[in-house]
Write a structure and sequence with these properties.
By secondary structure, this protein is an alpha+beta fold. The protein has one domain (6-249). It is built from five helices and 15 strands. It has helices at residues 51-80, 89-92, 106-116, 190-202, 210-215; strands at 6-11, 15-21, 27-33, 36-42, 82-83, 99-104, 126-129, 132-138, 146-150, 155-163, 167-172, 176-177, 186-189, 239-242, 246-249. The strands form four sheets. The protein has a six-stranded mixed sheet. Strands 1, 4, 10, 11 and 12 form a five-stranded mixed sheet that branches. Helix 3 (106-116) runs parallel beside helix 4 (190-202). The longest helix has 30 residues, at 51-80. The structure holds zinc ion. Zinc ion is lined by residues 232, 234-235, 237, 249, 251-252, 254.
Length: 261
């Protein structure tokens, strides 16, 4: 399962009106355009297809759009992440957050876990270092030199699907920082991350039990207010999730997506 370091929300509005709490605890109104073309799928005679085929296509295209969104997110990260050493505790200690996503290439993530698991650990996903939990995301689009640290769900992306005569178009917004009380994304060196983790074990004498404790709990980046569905409320069937809080049923025609326009 792919875990996204940003939140996707499916909308049917071309402009989303939001209220953001700033770091000074003030409310700020924000109009977010959802008008950048993210993904376009050509389908001839869309109107002539059956209802269920159209419905199936719609979800398939939304799923594809999530992958495109991830690529856009990586480009965005490259342009805004601040260059840092691993792990800049002086900077991070100014924030209450202790859980971060660490994005690396698949090669580098493997190397990292080879080093990390050397003392009998079997993690493929989570590195705990000092007081921080790092959820490692292997992304093939990243170079072996790259590594990015970003607070989970710091950014929110709105996506919107529109049926045209012969295409289904998916539009996106900018990546909106709705968690301004989290640090900026950091641009790290993959080798620096691996070397630092490795070095920390060479100087580690007692095995802290803390990481064991942490590993017993599944890592979740869900916000508390998003009710999670595990089965279809209509037929108890299997459901598929799209974005943060949108679902559709694989067995019947139930979904909670916004109607298309
Ligand atoms: Zn159902």
């Amino acid at each position: 399962m792919t875990m996204f370091p940003f939140t996707i929300k499916v909308t049917n509005q071309s402009v989303e009106r939001l209220c953001r709490i700033t770091s000074q605890n003030r409310q700020q109104n924000l109009d977010v355009d959802v008008q950048m073309l993210l993904h376009q799928c050509e389908i001839h005679q869309l109107h002539a297809l059956s209802h269920s085929t159209r419905r199936h296509l719609r979800f398939e295209i939304l799923n594809e759009a999530q992958e495109h969104a991830y690529q856009a997110f990586l480009l965005f990260l490259r342009s805004i992440a601040e260059s840092e050493v691993f792990l800049p505790t002086d900077l991070l200690n100014r924030y209450p957050h202790r859980q971060y996503c660490l994005l690396m290439s698949p090669n580098r993530s493997r190397e990292l876990f080879d080093v990390y698991n050397i003392n009998g650990r079997h993690s493929q996903r989570l590195v705990t270092y000092i007081d921080y939990e790092l959820i490692v995301e292997a992304r093939p689009q990243l170079l072996d030199t790259e590594a990015y640290l970003v607070a989970p769900s710091k950014y929110t992306l709105f996506i919107r699907q529109v049926n045209e005569a012969n295409t289904i178009d998916v539009y996106r917004s900018d990546f909106i920082d709705l968690a301004v009380s989290t640090p900026p994304p950091l641009d790290l060196h993959a080798q620096d991350v691996i070397d630092t983790i490795q070095h920390s074990f060479e100087t580690e004498f007692d095995e802290s039990p803390r990481w064991r404790q942490l590993l017993m709990f599944p890592i979740s980046q869900e916000t508390e207010n998003s009710a999670k569905l595990s089965k279809c409320p209509k037929c108890d069937g299997q459901i598929q999730r799209i974005g943060e809080d949108s679902y559709f049923c694989l067995d019947c025609d139930w979904d909670n997506l916004q109607p298309l326009r």
